[in-house]
Amino acid sequence: MTFIYSREMPVKARPDVLVCGAGLAGIGAAVAAARGGAKTMVVERNGFAGGFFTAIVGSAFDGFVDERTGTPVVGGLVFEMLERMGVVEPGQAPHLRFNVKGDLTWVEMHPERTIPRCDPERFKRAADAIMEDAGVEVLLHTQVADVVAREGHVEQVIVSNKDGLVAIEPQVVIDCTGDGDAAAWAGAAFEKAESLQPMSLHFRIAYVQPTYELRRRCAAVLEKAHERGELGLYAGPYLATFSGRDAYFNATRYPGDNTNPEDWTQAEIQGRKDAWTMFEAWQRELAEFEEAYFMSSGPVAGGRESRRIVGDYELTEEDVRTGARHSDVIVLGAWRLDQHPAGSAGYHDIAWIPPYDIPFRTLLPRDFDNLLVAGRCHSATPGALAASRVTATAMGMGQAAGTAAALAGDASLREVNMGALQTALRDAGAILQAPESDVEVGDPDF
């Protein structure tokens, strides 16, 4: 059944650049566009920015470094956010070696390296500050509801908030929703894999001192619970810490499509059930959890994969595996081929890859002249997306998209001079050339 609904609505704003979503990609896009001289607005459905780090509760900048050496491969705003959170001193990041994340596997393998740890509350504060300082107009509690586009040109983006339904008329739109909502609703072509990576609801336990050995023991408890039928699908568990006195778990696993409201709802309901099942099993069987406290679960379940926009170029798994170079590189990727299975529990193979180029063309939805995407909805095959979907890579894509939008002005995005774009990115601290390395490393025990 359908019905026709028609109404007049006010035009809320006419920014040069509208960024949809203030996750990692959205922060990068909004700050870069504003610093490039564009009047920039960002809309975000939550009451805070940060996406994976804050709405899902994540721990570190995945894809930030070449894990063989700990050398950063994504700079620019990633460096600046680490500085603003107090992880590194100003100007220090390019000269340090980092663990790939706060996962205890890497901490114990390379104790001499810095952990690019991102506490959710510190990240919220840093995100607010960097956007305010850049002059970005931020609208929280504001959800993209529809898009009006004609002949490959976005004319209005309809948003919903406490004003009701209102329209925004931008010159350029950057879709950083993760799911490609704005691009899809504008009519841009997109793809979905037949089998999507599962969603996860992260959770945090207080009064636990995590170690790599504790993670092994947690995994053994979950494996037995799964065998007894007390626990269904689960991941890892992957364990990290924000303070050294708490444990953050990426461990629930729910197959489905988070662009389907029913699936996303069930991912959160089942995720909370499974998180408590895991916690209570650890409390029964592991002495380290005797005084533990279930502190929080993520505000939302996170999706790893949904819509992938069809762009001018599709990043392939072969590109990722071979460390392919592209003349229109705008950010480097370095995260492993981390494709969570939707039908099995526990750990999964995560194949190592060398740093690779992500082309600007993957941010350009085919047949649109004033629309960009950044983050995990960019143009990539499912295999390539297993590596390119993560936090640091998304922020680098966003920084490139925002920079390009400011350079374009009211011209077509395909008219942006690539040399000028890459120069602007380098001037802002971005890294566009993979570091040389002859180091070989085997896969760690996950």
CATH homologous superfamily identity of the largest domain = FAD/NAD(P)-binding domain
Percent helix, as a range, is: 25-40%
| Poorly predicted sequence stretches spanning 5 or more consecutive residues | 438-446
Strand content: 15-25%
Number of domains: 2
Overall geometry:
globular
Give the CA-CA distance, first to last residue.
49 Å
Number of helices: 11
| Spatial strand order of the main sheet | 6-3-2-10-19
What CATH architecture of the largest domain do you see?
A: 3-Layer(bba) Sandwich
Structural class: alpha/beta
Number of strands: 19
What would you report as the Rg, rounded to the nearest angstrom? 21 Å
Question: Element order, helices and strands?
Answer: EEHEEEHHHEEEEEHEEHEEHEEHEEEHHH
The CATH class of the largest domain turns out to be Alpha Beta
The biggest sheet, with number of strands, parallel, antiparallel or mixed sense and barrel status, is: 5 strands, parallel
Q: Quote the average pLDDT.
A: 93
| CATH-defined fold name of the largest domain | FAD/NAD(P)-binding domain
